[in-house]
Specification:
The protein has a 6-stranded parallel beta sheet, with helices on both faces. The chain has 164 residues and is of the alpha/beta class. It has a single domain, classed as HAD superfamily/HAD-like (Rossmann fold, 3-Layer(aba) Sandwich), CATH 3.40.50.1000. The chain starts with 7 loop residues before the first strand and ends in an 8-residue tail after the last helix. The longest helix is centred in the N-terminal third of the chain and has 13 residues. 38% of the residues lie in helices and 15% in strands. It is globular. The structure holds magnesium ion (MG). Magnesium ion (MG) binds next to loops.
């Protein structure tokens, strides 16, 4: 099984089958922030996202943001959504994922990693044997090194998923 093949390709986090996850024993979500939950260049949390976060809590999901970002903004967003947070994560290295799991009191086998990048979010999740979900990036705004990775993603994903 390829380390670069997510278990699911989804248009965004709202497409996650929360009932199906719970039925399959997946009760934990580790979620990337930039271009997965919010466009990288905004601080505004849309009402729809706030409602989704409340729905997760009501259903009993354990949720932790795992972000390579280091700005104060990440903490503010996590607080606003009521999610745990591990920032400066250095994905795809495993340490931050493991910290996140211990923070919410869960294990890899019950966890889905959700993100918009193949070489950080999906690879990191795969290396730890977690369920992985690749979502379409919310904006075309990326850091220079991310833009390079995007070109590689297009090669690896060629023909398998439409990327913008
Ligand atoms: Mg991202």
């Amino acid at each position: 099984m390829s380390l670069f093949a997510p278990d699911e390709y989804l248009v965004d986090v709202h497409a996650i089958d929360l009932d199906g996850y719970m039925a399959a024993g997946i009760d934990t979500l580790l979620i990337d922030l930039d271009n997965t939950l919010l466009p990288r260049d905004t601080n505004v949390v849309p009402t729809e996202l706030r409602e989704w976060a409340a729905d997760l809590a009501a259903r009993g999901f354990k949720v932790c943001l795992v972000s390579n970002n280091w700005h104060d903004r990440v903490k503010r967003v996590a607080d606003e959504l009521g999610f745990e947070l591990v920032a400066k994560a250095v994905k795809p290295l495993p340490f931050a994922f493991l910290v996140a799991l211990s923070r919410v009191g869960s294990v890899r086998s019950k966890t889905a990693m959700v993100g918009d990048q193949l070489f950080t979010d999906v690879l990191g999740g795969r290396l730890l044997g977690m369920h992985t979900v690749l979502v379409t990036p919310l904006s075309g705004s990326d850091l220079p090194h991310t833009l390079l990775l995007r070109r590689l993603e297009r090669v690896v994903l060629a023909g398998r998923v439409p990327l913008p």
